[in-house]
Amino acid sequence: MSQLIDLAARLETLRAARVTAVGDVMMDRFVYGTVERISPEGPIPVLRIQRETTVLGGAGNVLRNLLALGAECCFVSVVGDDAAGHGVTALVAAEERVEPHLLVETNRQTTVKTRFVAGSQQLLRADQEEISPIRPATVADLLRRTEEALNQSGALTLSDYGKGVLCPETFRALLTLAQQKRVPVIVDPKGRDWTRYNGATLVTPNRAELAEATGLSTHDEAAIVIAARHILATTSIEAVLVTRSQDGMTLVTREGAPFHVSATAQEVFDVSGAGDTVVAGLATALAAGFSLTDACLLANAAAGIVVGKIGTAVCRLEDLSAALQGSDLAVGEQKIISHGQIADLVGAWRRQGLRVGFTNGCFDLIHPGHVSLLTQSKAACDRLVVGLNTDASVKRLKGDSRPVQSEMARAIVLASMAAVDAVVLFGEDTPRDLIAAVEPDVLVKGADYTVETVVGSDLVLKRGGKVLLANLEAGFSTTNTLKKIAGGA
Predict the structure, then answer these.
(1) How close are the terminal C-alpha atoms of the chain, in Å?
(2) What is the pTM of this model?
(3) Cα pseudo-dihedral 177, 182, 183, 185, rounded to 10
(4) Which one from 160, 188, 270, 276 is the annotated catalytic residue?
(5) Residue 84 in contact with residue 58, Cβ under 8 Å?
(6) Is 203:194 a contact under the CB 8 Å cutoff?
(7) Cα(72)–Cα(263) distance, rounded to whole angstroms?
(8) Please, which of 62, 390, 409, 460 could form a disulfide with 465 given CB 3.0 to 4.6 Å?
């Protein structure tokens, strides 16, 4: 575990990484709803649609993960001159720290994958796509732009989804360019003929892809190593990283023993795009100067985070930091999350149909009044988020003598309580911004407030939520406790 803690201390260096990403881009649509009955027209569920989201998929999801991990990216791909292509272009343009090179081909279908989801269960995926090689002129343009980008890049990712952007000739040209410029190349492979990846630094197949490429069994660690070594013996690929779902990863290189990494996910909701997260984690780490084994550890931790989310999710740098730093902590302490993580966590809860509550305070010295407030808050919801004032915020509100306990000590105590599902620190004088991020269904404060004076009540009521004024336990307060201590001193 100490190795993971050491990695956490080096995460800020990822912000200096620059990666070039090339491959098949697509649009991922997610249609969310509920299923309450079976269709009378056939034995299929009827999805009552509630909302839809659209994100970048394929090589675009690699881009999203690269940016989330702090890297800068030059993104090179091809889209059609159609509505989906225009949508992909707009989504890329909305991202920061990306240099986009989206080449447009007329009469080409931009790939769209639509997933229909009920709760945490994917019901159906419908694909609109064209599988055909891009035109020679487009290939020449793609190679020219990539060559220029590699002059300032620390890694190159090639995402081959078999849609036509990366044909064998294009692969050879790109790998030759990268070798000339001494840039490591990470390939997400497809198909049976991996000689097209000759010269790649690393390929990242899953078990099924490795079995298809070799014709060998991949049912356990020993078999995976044999199959990976077969790839190394029959190609000039330098290393193979096999992703093994709930069993973690195995890295096989030309020298040394295999490197096995255990999975880190506590709960798996959706594996969509997890392979893209692995590619992005590896590329960012290698571009930042990490060793190959450290890059694998980082990519494994990142993948463990995204499979705990629904949809084609990303792993943010702060998510990764929390996961690595929390590797030695008790389960209760893992409830302490950052402001940036809370929207994803709450979103996952809501997709499970859970009601989210919120309350806040300084919680300096926990007393029966605090316990009562938290108990009443949890009784009104399925998942309770507690906003906790930072030390600086408490000092501004209560004076220089407060807080008595540090913010982390207070957070750990709160996180250990069964009623609390997440603790989020905030440094402002009020939790209004945090409430806006959480969008709670229930907002709870003590009965010494009125609905109108509760900070954020307008935001919650506007969304159709509820403000609950909890009963107070008379005679308990941190201030009074401190006065008693001072009087008895």
Answers:
(1) 44
(2) 0.66
(3) 70
(4) 276
(5) no
(6) yes
(7) 27
(8) 460
